[in-house]
Amino acid sequence: MHEDYKDIIDIKYQKPKQFPPMPREKRAAQFAPFSVLNGFSKAILKTQKDMEKALENSKYQEES
Fold first, then answer.
1. DSSP structural state of residue 64
2. Which residue from 27, 28, 11 is spatially nearest to 19, judged by alpha carbons?
3. What would you measure as the largest C-alpha separation in the chain, in angstroms?
4. CA gap 27, 19 in Å, rounded
């Protein structure tokens, strides 16, 4: 362990009394605007539909 942190590594964490724990829903909502994958699910669904359509029109589709 790095020598610089020996003085603080074993200090017990004290939760702040003036700030009660935030519910998970509110904590998650704080980070929603930063989602890198906005619109990703729509793109996946479009790709899935395109692939299904291509398979339906494919001559390599297995005969039932």
1. -
2. 27
3. 72
4. 13
